[in-house]
Amino acid sequence: MTTRHQHGASAEPLLSIEDLHVHFVTSRGVVRAVEGVSYQVHKGEIVAVVGESGCGKSVTSLTVMRLLAQPAGRVVGGRIMFEGRDLLTLGDEEMRAIRGRDIAMIFQEPMTSLNPVLSIGLQIMEPLTIHLGMSEAQARARAVELMGLVGITDPERRLDQFPHQLSGGMRQRVMIAIGLACNPKLIIADEPTTALDVTIQAQILELMKDLVRRLGIALVIITHNLGIVARYADRVNVMYAARTVEQGTADEVFLTPKHPYAIGLMRSVPRLDRPRGQRLETIEGLPPNLLKPPTGCRFAERCPYRIEICATEPPLAPVDGDHLSACHRARELPLAAAATSAAAVVPAVDLSAQPTLLEVEHLAKHFKVPARGLLGGDTRTVKAVNDVSFTIARGETLGLVGESGCGKTTIGRVVLRLDDPTAGEIRYDGQDLGRAAGGEMQKLRRQIQVIFQDPFSSLNPRMSVGEIIGEPLSVYRLEPDSRRVKERVGELLTQVGLFPYMAERYPHELSGGQRQRVGIARALALEPSFIVCDEPVSALDVSIQGQIINLLEDLQRRYGLTFLFIAHDLAVVRHISHRVAVMYLGRIMEVADRDTLYAAPQHPYTQALLDAAPVPDPLIERSRAPRALTGELPSPLNPPTGCVFHTRCPKAVEDCRHIVPELREVRPNQLAACIRL
Amino acid sequence: MISYLANRTLMMVPTLFGVAVLIFFLLRVVPGDIVEVKLRGDGGTVSAETLEAERKRMGLDKPLPAQFADWMKGMATFDFGKSMWTDRPVTEEIAARIELSIEVAIMASIIAVLIAIPLGTLSALFRDTWIDYVIRLFTIAGLAVPSFWLGMLVILSLLSFFNWLPPITYTPIYVDPIANLSQLIWPAMAVGYRYAAVVARMVRSSIIEVMKEDYIRTARAKGVYERLVVSRHAMRNALLPAITVIGLEFAFLIGGLVVTEQVFNLNGIGKLFVQAVSRNDFTLIQTMVMLIATIFIAVNLIVDVLYAALDPRIRY
Ligand SMILES: Nc1ncnc2c1ncn2[C@@H]1O[C@H](COP(=O)(O)OP(=O)(O)OP(=O)(O)O)[C@@H](O)[C@H]1O
Ligand code: SF4
Ligand code: SF4
Ligand SMILES: [Mg+2]
């Protein structure tokens, strides 16, 4: 473990944001995107900024770079001191000379942040020629060196390639190479790994950490993933509704949070390192609308510790030493509130006696994709799902995890019969789902429902909430008269924690969490017994995620529902599932009950996934050795022979290239597909 | 790439065949034929036998499918037939005039592109300032003003202010560039204006879109000079959609020449086309339609090739 940097209070910070205020003038009014944000970054330090979506994290960092959207964005107050100069008062040309030279920025979307028509080489060389006046040849040599530094193999050839020829992880490496090009003093990384898979995320973050430590660069990581914060940050800034609400070292903020919002955040995040069987604690309610922010403490509406004085605005003040909090009651808050959760333990249900509801045997789904042949005819096959078998008992939740493109969603779609299987059998309650047709299929369709990932795009924007939820009722003629439909919609809304009056609203008038509740209400309308949940919480903020997970668990208990829960977040899956199946490139690598799988994973891929996912506890993270899986996810068009994992497996031997391992019992009730077990 | 081009060229055959069928039968649905127009003229009397004999000579007495087959056979051997009016091969009739028309079209395109790209870019970069308003006014006028009217305006002002008219006979540019340009620059400007307006508007909106892209933000975050952000990072992306419009408009321009050549009294294929139609000169009309269709398709192909050259994501 690298040493955590310490500095005396006297050391002059490299970057100091002081009481920053930024507004956006929009047609709907003035959005007060940043109102009183302050934080410091010292030389060589890693600082994290966390907070819910829309709280102003990105706007703050774009303001540092002076790259606010124009003409809407306006800085209305505050200073940004960088090496003794206020960046806000610099001329455009002076500021341009700092960007990319002294301060570099890495953005969230590796797919769209590189120019599609310019070569990788040119894009890396650009800052070198502009800031350092290098010649073409010098810049090229340095670009090759930089690409080696960020772990891109075969850099000479890559220089002449274009972004679309690189994977997401590769592109993010290129972005890092660009950021490092001129040896900046500060790098601001805005959600640098949010768009990437867990194993790639770990590679990128380890790389960034090593580089900034080695080169003495200060790093600001903006993220909503508390695990990342715990693993990498020296200092943490928590933002809420356009303000900084807490600031301190990672240990202080994680172990003794001094702001009720930070406490709530620590409690509501599902964790990989805690025994389960508990409800998640959540922060009820929603963050305030920045068009009309409340007066006084902005968290008051959701705060369990609220008292009268909270109607006045709490200043960001020291609690002890450098640990700051913007709460009137910071000193009286329960100690170590985050570490222990008082949530009720839910009695475990014994599922072993339950009959099997869904049975999938040797399922395969192949897609034909047109190859780039000209006179047509040529197609190639993507083997999205290969020889997959599993069962789900009535009332059980089976979690399906894996990286993007491993075939999770395809399995969900085939079970829903949105796609037809290429081979294999699916039996639902003893009936052959793969061959059911006509009236039989209709009946089955009613029993199997789905909840999608993106609550925004899965709801028709032109239908009111009432119409969306009522639609299946009228399609299947369950409720003949419209007054009954309305009543039923009201009931459903109440069941998912919304209010009947919301039936009049349209999807754009709801928050992400509320929209997801509407999606759940729609799925419940037909009183199904089985629901496929495809990444139902991955688009939501931590505090909202917890609310939805609890809701799903409550519904399961109340109505005896069975879930196939598809997700890439290991902690979320662990929290909600009874059993977990791990997929890689279209095949199941390991299946076991939740506790066994997380406590004693057998398959090398499961072990790697668990290693790669950081847990939100700085003490644990510090004691873990970084063991990032190397290599890229192979293309499903051209999967490796033998064991599909052999290209990245640390235990691979020669035989792994030829033998396709069977999924077999390696321990009681634990199945894995690996020849070396 | 080679196989792609070969493939696309092969694909032209069925398309052109479709055009041929359509034009051939459409022409013959319209009552009246060239023999009457040619021999009767304005009310002359000619015996039915003479008409019949002339029809026979031109092959118009055969059943339609046979006539069509003859035409197709001819085309396949690059024998496009003779003008029914002048009895000269249609290729000669067209060759005598096409040079002028192509030159006007190319000059108009050059003028248009030279004006449109800077104007569109300025308009986008200075969006919602007076510069943008002036340019938008200029381009909206270009869309609204018909080119024949603009042409007449040009001629009238040349006449009344300089007491000068452009030369009437065509001199090829390699013989006397000055004489050539002083004749053709005016019609080129008249048609080029509309062309420029359409392209400038396209360039403006596509630059505005591109400037919002994440990679523009990345370029700025690298400290790239704003000048370079526009010329290197934004332009190439923004020109992609503009190229499609440039190609499409070029094809339309050839059609638009019909009117302009009348106004400027130019002896180009536009004028030839009008004559051919008024005389029911089937062979000539058919051949010219086929020619224009070929140009249309060829321009499309060129656009696609250019697209691939500018966008590395597209490879054939
Ligand atoms: N160009 C803009 N015009 C108007 N409002 C904007 C603009 N950019 C951001 N905002 C608003 O400013 C507020 C803060 O946005 P910001 O992007 O900083 O959030 P964030 O904390 O980065 O969220 P996320 O985690 O989703 O990235 C939001 O309410 C957002 O809607
Ligand atoms: S100031 Fe009051 S309302 Fe705000 S966080 Fe503290 S206790 Fe809660
Ligand atoms: S079969 Fe070989 S490559 Fe596959 S997981 Fe086991 S050891 Fe690794
Ligand atoms: Mg953001």
Overall morphology of chain A: globular
According to CATH, what is the class of one domain in chain B?
Answer: Mainly Alpha
Average of the residue pLDDT scores of chain B? 86
Give the cofactors and ligands.
adenosine-5'-triphosphate, iron/sulfur cluster, magnesium ion
Give the largest interface pair and sizes: A-B, 32 and 27 residues
* Secondary-structure element series of chain B: HHHHHHHHHHHH
Which radius of gyration of chain A do the C-alpha atoms yield? Answer: 26 Å
Task: Explain the layout of strands and helices.
The complex is a heterodimer of chains A (677) and B (316).
Chain A: E1 15-26, E2 29-41, E3 46-50, H1 57-64, E4 73-82, E5 85-86, H2 92-98, E6 103-106, H3 120-131, H4 136-149, H5 155-159, H6 168-180, E7 186-190, H7 198-215, E8 218-223, H8 226-232, E9 235-240, E10 243-249, H9 250-255, H10 260-268, E11 317-320, E12 323-325, E13 356-370, E14 379-393, E15 397-401, H11 408-415, E16 423-428, E17 431-432, H12 438-447, E18 448-451, H13 465-475, H14 482-495, H15 512-524, E19 530-534, H16 542-559, E20 562-567, H17 570-576, E21 579-584, E22 587-593, H18 594-599, H19 604-612, H20 618-623, E23 664-667, E24 670-672
Parallel strand pairs in A: 3-8, 3-9, 6-7, 7-8, 15-20, 15-21, 18-19, 19-20
Antiparallel strand pairs in A: 1-2, 1-4, 4-5, 9-10, 10-12, 11-12, 13-14, 13-16, 16-17, 21-22, 22-24, 23-24
Helix pairs in contact in A: 3-4, 3-6, 4-6, 6-7, 13-14, 13-15, 14-15, 15-16
Chain B: H1 2-29, H2 34-40, H3 48-58, H4 64-76, H5 90-125, H6 130-144, H7 147-162, H8 177-211, H9 214-221, H10 226-263, H11 269-278, H12 282-310
Helix pairs in contact in B: 1-12, 5-6, 5-8, 5-10, 6-8, 7-8, 7-10, 8-10, 9-10, 10-11, 10-12, 11-12
